[in-house]
């Protein structure tokens, strides 16, 4: 059972919870807590201590963070380094690890994926970084094994950058935030709230880390309980979880929309560092005698059962036994949700998965940073032992998260046990998580111990009449389902001897293959730029007045970054801004690119000194209407661009391309009721886009309408709270109000300059 507290609370001695109500002072005093301890309790969380140590400002309410290390993978590091190069990068100022776990297959687009890898190697050599070749490790497992440090902070260009279980506060952001660190700038954020995740009890046999994670996500995602806050794992239940188990829960905290996570550490974590030959990187972390939290999530580990997140979100959570008991009703709800995402573009049904009263699964995947851990794979092997997955439709693939893990399961026999069942073992690769590997068949139902199950993320294409479904589950229940040849089965209903295996880390694997510059740059190395690696196009500064065309209108409750820029097949073009931009919103709104290009043509004409109306004739009536009230607006103080409206955009991946692709196509703004994550809003800002907010229910425009923003540059520069805007249609202008929300001075200047690249060039 997972419950939340409707107020803040004090945690005394790491175990006693005192709600922050009228009786709190008396309760604390009776326990011997002093007024001084109560007054400083906010500063006694683990999170506060780490943030204070990394804050370079003199204000703990306005943080300016410098990270200890950086990490990127092969669909983000090219753009990051290209951006930093454009701003004068000469050397990586802190350790920067470039892993290759997304475009590993080199199977799409000719040479371009391997060209990116060669670029990455030469960049690590030239600027003094670390290069991890394809198939060696997924980004987050390498970071756990080789980068995490107690009390440290890591910034990664992947949303699942989470190493809190090891005592490292790690944050996943879009590439421009890493660029800032490479240029010795800071990560600026208001002091986040800190929410205690209070664990008690111990998981029952068959319940794994994904079950715990999904139970938490299901409770807190919908109401935003931990949104943009720090999740701090404490309580007596922590000691009952192994390091691998904690890591498996921790990596999924991203799906709650929290900012980051941190755990108290103990001998289990010390042993993890010992095993990996890094004993000196361990640090004991725990809250102070009296710590204050802005909220509390209580997790009774004893009561949790195997869980499943049904399509199409990690928060669509049920107990597996509940799904089996009420399959028809729950599948009908999934179909209703699908209607919101797919509309009438495709027929979608899961009802045919119910056969003879049982829910049948077509595919199982245990993979990546969430599922590919040593204990998950060993537990799956124990459950599968003596069974076989059958020779019908059901398939099972297992991806160890690193080559050292793969080596160990070969040595201890788990690999052989898995292969004997008919399952397949593959190398370290993130593909199944984002649609670049093991894409299911049309209408198939896949269960995965991975991180996300958004629409189309598994690789299907609605625009081509293809659709598949993914549900998230723990490796143990996936193995139980596989042993039952595709019948959905919770691991608690499957009798198996789950053993405890000792892990031996073989450091020679990395020593023999990973390039580590040890921080020494070699300027003589020439970057190898394949033909698909392109520079960013020039971007103009924010004009005084702006005409925006609305080119997409999305009313889904949440819009994911996968819908803004698809994953999977687009990954091969992440090094080519113009090429990648052609895929923008392609799975959600195929008309977007064409509509955006039409208004961009007007801006291009303006930049070249020609008439924008001749480039896009529809503007003639729009400008005539504007000129009636704003006669001083002319080509010398005007700009043209596009915007989208979405209710709540930006859930999911940290990929900056969700914003940069809009910018490349002439995007100047997003308009939303709220932004799903800080990282998406930051991506918009770093690409010079205005992150507008509009009140729910107030929408004086529709798709293909125009919006006029008079004096927008002055409004941004003068920190105006309300932004005056006009909906321009049918020869009339209707005034309405937009807000920009809190912006730092640097963020305002980035928007004024047009993007982070321009901002750094000016500096």
What are the key terms here?
763 residues; 34 strands; Aconitase, domain 3; 29 helices; alpha/beta; globular
List the helices and strands and how they pair.
Layout: E1 2-4, E2 9-12, E3 16-19, H1 24-30, H2 35-39, H3 46-54, E4 62-65, E5 69-72, H4 77-86, E6 96-99, H5 112-127, E7 130-132, H6 139-146, E8 153-156, E9 169-172, H7 175-182, E10 187-190, E11 194-200, H8 209-220, E12 230-234, H9 243-250, E13 260-263, H10 267-275, E14 290-293, E15 295-300, E16 307-309, E17 317-319, H11 320-325, H12 327-342, E18 354-355, E19 358-359, E20 363-366, H13 368-371, H14 374-384, E21 395-398, H15 403-411, H16 414-420, E22 424-425, H17 431-434, E23 445-449, E24 469-472, H18 475-483, H19 508-511, E25 515-516, E26 545-554, E27 559-560, H20 561-564, H21 577-581, H22 592-607, H23 612-615, H24 619-629, E28 638-646, E29 649-651, H25 657-664, E30 667-672, H26 678-686, E31 690-693, E32 706-709, H27 712-717, E33 722-729, E34 732-739, H28 745-753, H29 756-762
Helix pairs in contact: 4-7, 8-9, 14-16, 14-18, 28-29
Shape: globular
Unreliable stretches (pLDDT < 50, length at least 5) are none
The CATH architecture of the largest domain can be named as Alpha-Beta Barrel
Q: Ends: how far apart?
A: 53 Å
Instruction: Determine the fraction of residues in helical runs and give it as a percent range.
Output: 25-40%
Number of domains as seen in the coordinates: 4
The whole-angstrom Rg is 26 Å
Specify the biggest β-sheet.
Answer: 7 strands, mixed
- Enumerate the strands of the largest sheet in spatial order, edge to edge or round the barrel: 31-30-28-26-32-33-34
- Average pLDDT: 94
- CATH superfamily of the largest domain, please? Aconitase, domain 4
Broad CATH class of the largest domain: Alpha Beta
CATH fold name of the largest domain, please? Aconitase, domain 4
